[in-house]
Design a protein that fits this description.
Elements: H1 2-17, H2 22-36, H3 41-52, H4 59-73, H5 75-87, H6 93-109, H7 112-130, H8 134-145, H9 155-164, H10 168-174, H11 176-194, H12 204-212, H13 214-236, H14 242-260, H15 269-299, H16 302-313, H17 317-334, H18 337-354, H19 359-372, H20 381-390, H21 394-418, H22 421-429
């Protein structure tokens, strides 16, 4: 049976490499298992549908909707203007503005795409005008947008908590410190690199005028800044669940977009709703098939086989953790973060428990590894979106992207893996 599973995985990877739409990839793998693996798809489908009606899963599409509405409402622009007042005039400051804004947007939407879509059209032209190379500006935006998958509330942490039956709030908190550390390191790398560019900095008179804008911009950004406060404060204050928080954030964006920032006045509200419905439908279909395939592997005792195979290679804990990190990185390169989380988390969790890794700690390990897949080809969906928005070639963006990953991201991956307090301190502090 393991031979059948192996060829099923080969088929799945092949379909993914040929850019077949994700639902069809998993549907094809399921069909293969049904024909050759003696697996009842009827029972798998009934089980998957039962899982899909779980209210916890509703949080994911609601956060997607909130992120899309936030991008169209003008909230992102106000956040950019607010952060820009403090550090935008410093050499390399615009890059820091980009990183911080993506982190704040991540605390609202739980998505990496929102950071790119909402800030890219504003931030990239502004950075290019100041003297940043277009490829550098686009690469920084793309890598910084990964923060949307790590800064709570995170969409992939919802999925991890759901499939592993781990506290979702604890999973949120596990990636908080790694996310903030990545924000800091990306900002530092940007500041160091920016010294090489001939940037057009503002004069002292302009800086003085900018300081006068602090109060007006703060007042203007207050509704936008209130959004993450409501979402996160409500979740951790016990006022509402993650699902209810997602609904609140989506509803909150509507009056803010119509009445305060007037971002919906151009008639783009209903097109945004239709676009979000299409995206959510595609994602939920993919999740359904992914759940069925993952459960099929679990029923065939694939996790136990993985444990045996891995331990036959080596029993060294450090080496095993490195192998698992490399495996998760490769998974992130070929599938999106949600798919990787649903498919891999149930399979690897038994192995991680045997290694003495806490499930909350494993949530952070999976989060930081799979999030990187958004900017690492061939999948690299966030990177490709940033390239379209930034109007730059792959050659222009490749070098800066690798530099940001190597110096600003990968160190946090290793720290998260081998220093558990980085991801466990905050959850333990709050009683998880």
């Amino acid at each position: 049976m393991l031979t059948i599973v192996f060829w099923d995985v080969v088929l799945l990877v092949a379909l993914l490499m040929f850019s077949v739409p994700l639902p069809y990839c998993f549907g094809g793998a399921l069909l293969f298992m049904s024909l050759f693996g003696d697996v009842s798809m009827k029972s798998m489908m009934l089980w998957a549908f039962d899982q899909m009606i779980n209210p916890v899963l509703l949080a994911s599409p609601l956060f997607i909707l909130a992120g899309i509405l936030m991008g169209g409402s003008g909230i992102a622009k106000k956040l950019l203007d607010f952060v820009d007042v403090f550090i935008g005039h410093i050499k390399g400051g615009l890059g820091v503005v980009c990183c911080v804004t993506c982190a704040i947007i991540g605390a609202i939407s739980g998505s990496g795409f929102t950071g790119v879509a909402a800030t890219g059209p504003i931030m990239i032209p502004r950075m290019v005008e100041q003297g940043y190379p277009r490829g550098f500006a686009t690469a920084l935006l793309a890598v910084a947008s990964i923060l949307g998958l790590l800064i709570p509330p995170s969409g992939i942490m919802i999925l991890y908590g759901w499939v592993t039956e781990t506290s979702i709030l604890a999973c949120f908190l596990s990636t908080l410190v790694p996310g903030l550390l990545i924000t800091l390191l990306l900002s530092v790398v940007n500041m160091v690199w920016a010294r090489k560019f001939n940037l057009k900095l503002e004069s002292r008179d302009v800086i003085r005028e900018r300081r006068k804008e602090l109060v007006p911009r703060t007042i203007s950004a207050a509704p936008a800044l209130l959004m993450p406060v409501i979402v996160l404060g409500g979740i951790y204050g016990g006022v509402f669940t993650a699902t209810e928080a997602a609904a609140v954030s989506a509803v909150y964006a509507i009056p803010v977009g119509f009445l305060i920032y007037r971002g919906f006045e151009g008639g783009n509200f209903f097109p945004l709703l239709r676009g979000s419905a299409s995206a959510i439908g595609s994602i939920m279909t993919m999740i359904l098939f992914c759940l069925m395939l993952s459960q099929t592997y679990v029923m065939l005792k694939v996790p136990q086989a993985i444990v045996s195979i891995v331990y036959s290679l080596t029993e060294n804990r450090t080496l095993l953790l490195i192998i698992i990190n490399l495996f998760l990185f490769l998974v992130g390169m070929v599938v999106n973060d949600a798919t990787g989380m649903i498919l891999v988390a149930p399979l690897l969790l038994p192995l991680m428990k045997q290694l003495g890794v806490d499930p909350i700690h494993f949530a952070a390990i999976m989060g930081v590894n799979l999030a990187m897949g958004g900017v690492t080809p061939p999948y690299a969906s966030i990177l490709y979106l940033a390239m379209r928005i930034g109007d730059c070639s792959f050659q222009e963006i490749l070098g800066p992207t690798l530099a940001f990953l190597i110096f600003g991201y990968v160190p946090v991956v290793f720290l998260t893996t081998f220093w558990p307090p980085l991801s466990l301190y905050v959850p333990r502090l709050l009683g998880y």
